[in-house]
Structures are given as structure tokens and as C-alpha cells.
Design brief:
alpha/beta; Rossmann fold; seven-stranded mixed sheet; 6 helices
Length: about 200
Amino acid sequence: MTTARTLPLLVCSIGNPGSAYANTLHSAGHTVINKLAAHLGYSQFAKDREYGKGLVSRPAITGGSGDWTLWQSTSYMNESGKGVKAAYTAWSRHIPVGEEGRLVVIYDELEKPLGSVTVRTAVGASARGHNGLKSMLAVMREVPFARIGVGIGRPVSRDSGEVARYVLRKMTPGEREKVELSVEEIVRSLQRLEKG
């Protein structure tokens, strides 16, 4: 019996760096990828110069299911494209010749219900106003990537200042729990994505 070949995945989160932005709604991608690493039993995130100066987490024990590398941006959201590109370039060097891998980006999604998960795989899809995705598309037009959006809700007001205050505020414990609960659905999504 042969097992189906799966694609290696580079799973990146984009958000804002540092403790001032930790656990803000706009950095929900980072909150989720931290929970994902713990859920999978991966190593602690550590800085890796080769991977665009981002933070990298890999399986603590080799030989498990799936070949996933987790990477967390240390750039500001609207500058995340360069770091993701550097990480993708470095990671791609480790893919055997003739094989392919897949880039997946986890980010916050303003218009979706808190903790909901949306997966988009269409090549050339719009950034939908998301500055992190705009930054990636500006420097990585030729690289197809899957997108996993984690819903963060939306304030009632459409005022841009009010929206900025909303996304940059810290999550309440209840909001964080809802966002972290999305991890099981994200794992299932990643398992589908690694199948091609």
C-alpha cells in the first residue's frame, strides 16, 4: 500500500511585531500560529536569519505526519511582503529538485465573524484592502499562495480611525479564546492544502 504524497508547507503568519501589538486583533495571525505550534507539539519559535529574520518553528520530533514549517513575521503588517519573500526563498532551497511545496499565509480578516476561518486558493485573488496581503502581492506577484483568514469581526462604525483603534486594541480573554479555537479548523485546512 502506498501513501499519498503530501506537499511540504511553509505556513506564515503576518501581523505587527513586539509586545505592544501582541494579542491585538490585527495580529490574530500571530496568535493563531503560536497556538498552532503548541497544538502540533512544535519547537518554540526562534529567530532565523536565513528565513527573512522571522521566527521559525518546526516539528520537535522528526518523522511525524506532515512537513510543515511555521514562520512568523517580525515586520510591521504593511511591510511583511519582503520578509515572507525571503522566508519563502530560503525554505524553497530545502525542497528537493523536481518537487514543489506550498506557501500558506494566516492573517486577520476584518469583515468576518470572530474566530471564523476562510480559505482562499485562487491565484491572483485581490488583497481585499488588507495591507499585509498588499505588501506580499507587491513583491511576490509570481508566487501563488493560499490564504487562511481568521475573522476578527468589525466595529459598528465605518470611520477609518475607529476601525484602526478596533484592530489595534488587545483582544479580551473571550475574544482570544474564540480566535485560538480556530486552530483545529486551520489544521484540517492545512491537511487539505498539503494534498495539493
